[in-house]
Amino acid sequence: MREKVKILGVNFDKITSKDALEKISDWLSPGIHLKKRHVVVTPNPEILLEAQKDDKYRRILNKADLSIPDGIGVLWASKFRKIANTKDSKLKKCSKWFVSLSMIPISKSYIRTELPERVTGVDLMEKICKLAEIKGSKVFLLGAGKGIARRTAEKLMEKYPELLITGVYAGTPKQKHEKKIRELINASEAEVLFVAYGAPNQEKWIERNIKHIHTLKVAMGVGGSFDFISGEKKRAPIVMQKTGLEWLYRLSKQPSRAKRILNATVVFPIRVFKRK
Fold it and tell me: Which of 229, 223, 231 is nearest to 257 (CA)?
């Protein structure tokens, strides 16, 4: 039975990345789960805020077969959920909120008592590609800007020479294009599908179309992962990723993300604090 932690109405699996990959490896094994198509989601604080105002999206996330936190903020929220007693006074609860937030860049172990670890979408995608190479599973890359999916495929095949990427397509998440895209994916006989349309479009696209893709075993929305793997955009330095300061790097490189970063670093913690 899956052990779950719920944050702002969205379920997360209480599972390590190692165990998650073992589960995905099982799904990709030949002759196993042939009639079952599995969905992997990696909600971050922005996605959780979106799911709060979109009931349909929240239900889609909660239907996923595997839900892994992408973001230090999600780990913090699981910790705060654990230590904030409903009987606490507002002052005591506020004190716990402030102290727990201040511990994010200081102690990784402190915030990992409920959810064991954060796995970014791009890291998980690469690990699944490594599994697909070992299993001989065919992969399809869908989404991102013009030419980016193809460059992503090239980079992945450089890193994993035996990886079978049988199709790439940018397309759009518009429903009028879905039939054509399904035909392309079915023709590729893909078993693994990565969709880079951004949240919530990518998860909604998967929900609408997964039952029509016959050979598929695993589908995952990957946001901006193609941009990072292709080299279109650079990731934050490792030290910033590990201390939860990746948002600061992104803000310095893309000031246009200010509103999104504000939501993740300010609005999200306040929403978690107010949640009973």
Answer: 223
